């Protein structure tokens, strides 16, 4: 018997911290018509349909196989009656590279992984074209799901050009800046953030500014502006001697990190007493991310904890920018953003049929 048209056939790649949080939500709240057809991490693959009672722990009973080709389960998704969806909750370049192919083949993609959307300009046109064939859910990639990408998309559709984007785009760097402002050591703040699942799998991706730079590229592209990573000026908080170490060695090098970050704080542009890692993009393409000293009156200086704030200046929003603020990291809010994109796909595809 064929399933109702809003049924989803889901494959989830990357059942790590964010992925598991989403699997728990799916197990508890997904409509009966949604099926989990595959779960894969870097080495293992569990093929479905998987019993709902096992969704939150898909590898628990050892009913998995070594991960080889993804093509097989992608073909299986396409053969089924449900709407095929790939969820990418990894931080892997290999998985990101598959987004354009999946979208072009008719598999909708929902992602927390920023690598595809922040790809080099040479790959961007292919991804953009593929995302017109299938739905591409990217809400979780910036601001852990704050409704900023939707707002930029709507401004673009309405023909309202974006002139400037400025903001604090990283929950972990927001919390780090706040800690540094009150004299805490970088390594100490980082350890707490890592324990709470609020950093990237390798926290140097946060500290080096690359994660924020990728988010700025995604915001720019969603606003219809041309920006790629190599055009961005990125101020890194990672000392050169720690950049190439293994993750474990880096995590054991707290004293070196603390000394370097203290120097970055001393050198940070600005004269205010608030520290923030700020992203800025002008319509002429000038773009930078880095640590800044902000005055008391600066709207970005009011943030606390993992707060993010994104300010968008357009012709209509010239005197006062459109501002969106809220938590910018966290497993549950990120999983909720992925969930919202899944619901959106389910509803839109049903409406179109
Ligand atoms: N944490 C947050 O607050 C937050 C917020 C917004 C977005 N995100 C994004 O969410 C994603 C996941 O973050 P996380 O904190 O959940 O990371 P994580 O705990 O390290 O989980 C990553 C998962 O991806 C899997 N993986 C790695 N390489 C893979 C590959 N080549 N093929 C398939 N699976 C692979 C890992 O499997 P193995 O164990 O086998 O390596 C693991 O299951 C990242 O892209 C991150 O930027 C996170």
TrEMBL record:
Gene3D superfamilies: Dihydrodipicolinate Reductase, domain 2, NAD(P)-binding Rossmann-like Domain
Alphabetized InterPro entries for the sequence: Asp/hSer_DH_NAD-bd (IPR005106), Bifunc_Aspkin/hSer_DH (IPR011147), HDH_cat (IPR001342), NAD(P)-bd_dom_sf (IPR036291)
Pathway: Amino-acid biosynthesis; L-threonine biosynthesis; L-threonine from L-aspartate: step 3/5; Amino-acid biosynthesis; L-methionine biosynthesis via de novo pathway; L-homoserine from L-aspartate: step 3/3
Protein EC: 1.1.1.3
One MF term in the entry's GO annotations: NADP binding
Superkingdom as given in the UniProt entry: Bacteria
GO biological process: homoserine biosynthetic process; methionine biosynthetic process; threonine biosynthetic process
Reactions listed under catalytic activity: L-homoserine + NADP(+) = L-aspartate 4-semialdehyde + NADPH + H(+); L-homoserine + NAD(+) = L-aspartate 4-semialdehyde + NADH + H(+)
Keywords of the record: Amino-acid biosynthesis, Methionine biosynthesis, NADP, Oxidoreductase, Threonine biosynthesis
Record bears the keyword Magnesium: no
UniProt cofactor(s): a metal cation
Keyword Protein biosynthesis on entry: no
Protein name: homoserine dehydrogenase
Lineage of source species: Bacteria, Pseudomonadati, Pseudomonadota, Gammaproteobacteria, Chromatiales
